[in-house]
Amino acid sequence: MSIPLSAQVQAGVLDDLEYTATGIDLQILTFPASSIEEMTDSIDVDGDGMNDLIFHVTLANVPDFGGSVTDVSSINPNVEIMTTGYEVTQLQLNDPILPDSSWNISYSWPFAANFYGIAGLTSYGQWLNNFTGYMAFRVLMPTDTLYGWLDVYAEANLEYVKLKVGGFALEPVINGVKESPEVSFNLFPNPASERVVVEVPEGQGVITLYDLMGRVVLEREYRNSVAGIFELDISSLPSGVYRVTRGSPNPSSDPPLGKKYPRGVSGWLSVVK
Known about the structure:
Blueprint: E1 9-10, E2 18-28, E3 36-43, E4 53-62, E5 65-74, E6 79-84, E7 87-88, E8 96-97, E9 103-104, E10 109-117, E11 120-124, E12 132-140, E13 145-156, E14 161-170, E15 187-188, E16 195-200, E17 203-210, E18 216-224, E19 228-233, E20 240-247, E21 265-271
Antiparallel strand pairs: 1-8, 2-14, 3-4, 4-5, 5-10, 6-7, 6-9, 6-12, 10-11, 12-13, 13-14, 15-16, 16-19, 17-18, 17-20, 20-21
């Protein structure tokens, strides 16, 4: 039985959240002469000592490109950014941060862009006309998902560019919002090298393994008349850490051809050769 999705975190609200100041301040205020100038800075949001988000500004004055861009990228596949289309979603104070929003990793997600190119003036991004707002992110943990926000000022002008991140707030404890109270399952042995046994429920479903770049590396379907176990051949996988998801469709009917099963339950597997 699914628990209804609801907001545990609101943008700009610090209730039960831990706030960390960052002091990121990227500014290029002098229009370059026939060149492209860039600045970057990065932060660690999950506390593992490695940076997760990279903030980037560009100011250019070259043929076919004159103006500025501000953007952010996730370099950790377990840190996702809330997006709308191809842009970072801008939230305002007290806006809910919902689990069923659009969440993405990698790439360059723009806050604001404003430049002249071959097609003339191009302007986009949710910070384009409102320079101040909040960016939502979430951290995928082995047994939970933590939600948070960053306070962001972004200004993309044709002759200068600014991007400031004052700090971020993140849930310090296990989030109560879950699709199901049974959010994990047994994998053994773990670490494994050739084969791993996965605990599966009654019915039919699919087991999918993702690498740390979020790519599907292995996918197998299963059918069981009773709850039990499913043996997975992982001999083709190189050493590494993989996210394992297990989805269960409606046991009363087969899914249509090409339809993916839901993936609401996940775990982690370490492969050692």
